[in-house]
Amino acid sequence: MRPAPRGQVDEQVRWGPRPYPQLLRGPRHRWWRPLLGAAVVLAGLVVLLLAVGAAYAVADALLGRPPTDEEALASPWAFLGNNLVLAALVPLSWAAVRVGHGIAPRWQASVVGRTRWRWMVQSGLLPAAVVGGSVLGLGLLATAAGQEPFGSGDQRSPTTTAALVVVVLLTTPLQAAGEEHLFRGWMSQAVGSWFRRPVAGAVVAALVSAAAFAFAHGDQDPWLYADRFLFGLTASYLAWRTGGLETGIAFHAVNNVVVFMPTVLAGGLGESLQTTSASPLLVLVDVVGFALIALGTTRLARRRGLVRLSAPPCVESSLGAVTRNGLQAESRDSASASITEGENPR
Length: 346
Prior knowledge:
mainly alpha; hydrolase
């Protein structure tokens, strides 16, 4: 690879390398750009809320009455609609990055400018084991105490239950991707772009996005809010230490599928979706599980040599992605041929 011209070298020194939360702090950054992106997000959320309201109005007209809680929340059509609305947060986040920051949306996926699909699958295995073990353990404890761990009361046919299972399996990953793109993607990168120091940007971005993520889930007691806040912090840490959203999306999708499936089969989905409280035991179990996932995934990413730093967009042609050791990787032209799934060439 030929050495970069003097001007490009100066750009490399000034702008790179940076972690995922600071990818928007590059040559195009201005203090007002995150605010413009926020305006795009707010406008998009208004449109989505109007669409949801219109859907409820149509359901009311067709039924001749307001839909019941189960029809509005736990039916296959309602669950599908909810997940698709949340999945729409992906293109909304892309629009915020494009319009607000003047950056190609692909840089929201990872520091290599694309989704590393193989890494997403690999990094979802540990969360599946940890979350599955937690749900099983808590379920056994609840059963031993004479409680119904996954709820009951939903009245539905086997066909409806099967339809719900399919909807949960196929669309929950889309819902998870939507929330991760909005909170750990656009919001974290927008907040992080306001800070000169990468660590400060990553920490403040994690705190802000985790607080917003937990608050967005509506009415909840302090324990449930804390649980969701800690989930958001863990997902932000994963994005920072792996250089992208892939692990957070896998973690989020696996968590929701593993939690929803037993409630669907037990007939407690409606009750689960309306939960507004959590026990201290649940939070404690989740803290341990989140720590295992964060540490285990970080170690796996290090062993894989996963790219987690890159120059901000607009100078990637001269710098490209860099390894965790801060060494310059190939230019984009050569990197596309030698870097597979976002890993450093071996």
